[in-house]
Write a structure and sequence with these properties.
The complex is a heterodimer of chains A (215) and B (10). Chain A is mainly alpha-helical. In chain A, 71% of the residues lie in helices and 0% in strands. Chain A is globular, with a radius of gyration of 17 Å. Chain B has one helix and no strands. In chain B, 40% of the residues lie in helices and 0% in strands. The chains are: A mainly alpha (215), B mainly alpha (10). The interface between A and B is medium-sized, with 23 and 8 residues. Chain A: It comes from Olea europaea subsp. europaea. Chain A: One of its GO terms (cellular component) is endoplasmic reticulum membrane. Chain A: The chain crosses the membrane at residues 55-78, 98-115, 121-140, 152-170, 182-202. Chain A: It is a multi-pass membrane protein. Chain A: This is ER lumen protein-retaining receptor.
Chain lengths: 215, 10
């Protein structure tokens, strides 16, 4: 475990907790894409299949449980909570996210490190995580006004993946034969997707104006 | 068995 990875995991944890806190306290999910949350729940469900078979460390198991419980409870809140669900804007959140799932699965069947069910599901979760933010970014473009909690949520998500890239670079130089192109490329694609959001987030922060994304 | 080193990440 290196500082980049720990910082990445903590940032990722913070992003999920910010979102849960927002939804739980103000009982609203305005500006949040349910599609992205469903994709993230699927990412964790397919990536943590080894939760009960391979014990790596208490930290690893604990974090996996937290991510699984929080992502599924966010989906539950938006879909079923009697107050929160009313603030879900399904007319705006129209990204056909099923069109993301199939290509990622097919790609995982073709490009993977080993043709086993667990490995393919794990690779699928990597590809899906790279594109899972798209419905949320599209929704932000559409609704244009971003309340600062949602902005912070997306910012923390992007920061977590950027820190993971630093972690991979660090591990590449410090651990012999730590080479995993699939993880690195999908992680890089994911971070690049945030790049333009980061730009506008930073601009709004620098000029101290409300975050606006161009149409 | 895939190398543990990779699967230890979240």
């Amino acid at each position: 475990m290196n500082i980049f990875r720990l910082a990445g995991d903590m940032t990722h944890l913070a992003s999920v907790l910010v979102l849960l806190l927002k939804i739980h306290t103000i009982k609203s999910c305005a500006g949040i894409s349910l599609k992205t949350q469903e994709l993230y729940a699927l990412v964790f469900a397919t990536r943590y299949l080894d939760l009960f078979t391979d014990y790596i460390s208490l930290y690893n198991t604990l974090m996996k449980l937290i991510f699984l419980v929080s992502s599924f409870s966010i989906v539950w809140y938006i879909r079923h909570h009697k107050i929160v669900r009313r603030s879900y804007d399904k007319d705006q959140d129209t990204f056909r996210h099923y069109f993301l799932v199939l290509p990622c699965f097919l790609l995982a069947l073709v490009i993977n490190e080993k043709f086993t069910v667990k490995e393919i599901m794990w690779t699928f979760s990597l590809y899906l995580e790279a594109v899972a933010i798209l419905p949320q970014l599209v929704l932000l473009q559409r609704t244009r006004n971003i309340d600062n909690l949602t902005g912070q949520y997306v910012f923390l998500l992007g920061a977590y993946r950027s820190l993971y890239i630093l972690n991979w670079i660090y591990r590449y130089f410090t651990e012999p034969h730590y080479v995993h192109w699939i993880t690195w490329i999908s992680g890089l694609v994911q971070t690049l997707l945030y790049a333009d959001f980061f730009y506008y987030y930073f601009q709004s922060w620098k000029n101290n104006v409300k975050l606006e994304l161009p149409a | 068995m895939p190398s543990k080193s990779l699967k230890d990440e979240l």
